[in-house]
Amino acid sequence: MPRNESDYDVIVAGGGAGGVGAAIGAAKAGARVALVEKYGFLGGAATNAQVLAYCGFFHHGGNEAVQSVAGAGEEVRDELRRLGLDCKPYHSPTTGNWIILLDPERLKVALDRVLAAHGVDVFLHSRVAAASRTADAIESVTVAGMDGRFRLIGESFVDGSGDANLALVAGQPMRLGDGEGRIQAFTMPIRVGGVTAEGRIDRQRIIAAVDAFNERSPEKINRTDGGIYTRVEGSGDFWWLIIDREMPDLSSRSFTRAEQSAREMAVTMVEVLRDKVEGFERAYLAQTGPQIGVRETRHPAARYEITHDDVLQGRLREDGVARASWPIELHTEAGKPAYEFIGGPGYYHVPLDALHAKGIGNLWYAGRVIGADPRAYGSTRVMGTAFASGEAAGVAAALTAGAGQAPDAAAVRAQLLAQGALI
């Protein structure tokens, strides 16, 4: 454990795809890096909310998967392959999206290994509790860990927390949800064991089971297509995205209500599956959570917000530092996702200023907290894109630490290309 006056070139808050990408990007650019994560494992929603798919590594649709994210994200895929996961693109029959199916336990180990290989100091069971800043720079963070509080001093910082926790304690202004009181619905993925391993799962019977659930349960499911489901990689378990919960606000009461009601729904849903769907006669609820899947919370002020039009036009830019290729996917109404697709070459550029905090020169954003307007956010938030924006933020933070001032986009792009990123 570092002593209170330890210092780093780059300190990253959050160990999801954005934070991991940032830590790898900064370390490969020569920085001394610390990463602070509140859970006892890395991976973000893929491991803490059972979202067992990486979205955003490939363009939407088509007969073949076209890759748009490499670099740090590809290093993680390579380590997963070494652990026996094939990481091949999977074409969702429901949405037409190409995704990568995950095993959360092997993912936890893969992320541990990749960060260790790059010499990143990882602090698990720890969270950023406070930040010390001057008018336009953060000087240090106070971390609350299992052994109390300690101070980490850094030259540059990356908020990859998903919920803008570092930006929040640094006093950064921010927008809640879409700025008009609406927050995208949360989803509780469920994992069902005891399912017959052979044969194809009949979607019409799944849809009928949802109808039966709605007759039995006071809490309703609004998805009419049977949701998104597949077998869990490496097992015969059934993984299902079907339970959505609206969030009126970010209060502890609302989170509690969403978590508890989603678990009750999961129990009833498995009872219905046993009664109604062939192959599920011995099914049991293997897992919910550990927490409900969070799509949206706070948006801290950035120097540029990616616009709805940027996404629809597939806008490419000289100051672009990452590719984003996931379509706009909005969950404004629980259970009724709405899609809009990317124009141009099938991806658009994330500009450097979307990763740079407005008014704080040494704070960078990764993953869900990068600058995006309410509609563009439906595209930028996914984990594949988070690896790309995170790696770019980590490189920018490392170059900031080395020069004492923010780099230009050309310098960040050059370093990213040397690291194998796609721009």
From TrEMBL:
A Gene Ontology molecular function term of the record: metal ion binding
Superkingdom of the source species: Bacteria
Keyword tags: 4Fe-4S, Iron, Iron-sulfur, Metal-binding, Oxidoreductase
Name under which the protein is recorded: Membrane protein
Parts of the chain that traverse the membrane: none
